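Example record

The entry below shows one chain as it appears in the dataset: sequence first, then structure tokens.
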Amino acid sequence: MMVTQFDDSRLLLVLQIDHSRLAGFLAAHWGNQTFAPPRPFTSVVLAAQEHDSGWGEWEMKPSTLNNQGFPLDYHDGSLKYLGQFRLDFYKNAVDRVAQRDPYAALVILMHGVGLMNAGYGMFAYPPDRSADPRVQEYIRHQEALRIKLLDDLRRSESFREVATDDHIWMNFKLMEIFDQMAQFLCNRYQLNSKARHYGPTNTLNNVPAPTGPGRGDVTLTLDTIDEQRAILRPYPFDVDPLNIFFPARLVPKRSYSSEEEFLREFYKAERITITYSVQSG
């Protein structure tokens, strides 16, 4: 859950599952004369859409508060507060998606492992957590499944062409871009707010954005214009501007004395829709 200040008296809550759906929306619109669309399209878009769907297991009842009694923000330390449950619901999401689309499941699996080992050593953020014995066991389990999924995909007529190492790592980087951008859009209010100290930078933590097979990567820069608009350079989407919508909740901005007290406010919270737009420069 992403928790940020809405005004002096209220907090804005954006669920990880809604951030995840926004990532899928970004993936579905990715592609123009400069950037190749995802391939396989449906699998990559599905992976982006469902990459954080495991959070729904906690967000159906987000009872954990941080040390100050405030709703748990995803940068408070989900592994610290949720422990093994945090690792298990990522595994469960992979298993669930694998029943419908094994390629999408592979991309989600790699994303989940990447959150724990600094993107397989490719990225500076998030930090490497693989020294934790719980994380080591999670990575061992997921890596064994990754090998099996990859073997199955390479035997499949439907996926063989897009199951090469180069193509899979390209789609992994695309997944990270969709996640980083959806975080940037969802974890602040308004769009030009500087209040959040953790999360993607305006260069999306310098994650390399693939332009297409054999075409190399670029760094994207997202510069806010005002409270609702941002310029993205270079521009990767198929419509310009791309209008962004996602749901959120408003709860009182205060420390809660108990999980039950917070949940009462969470379930009866006012629902709103946040509207932004991203355009070329």
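Notes for this example: Residues 184 and 201 are 8 Å apart (CA to CA). The chain has a mean pLDDT of 96.
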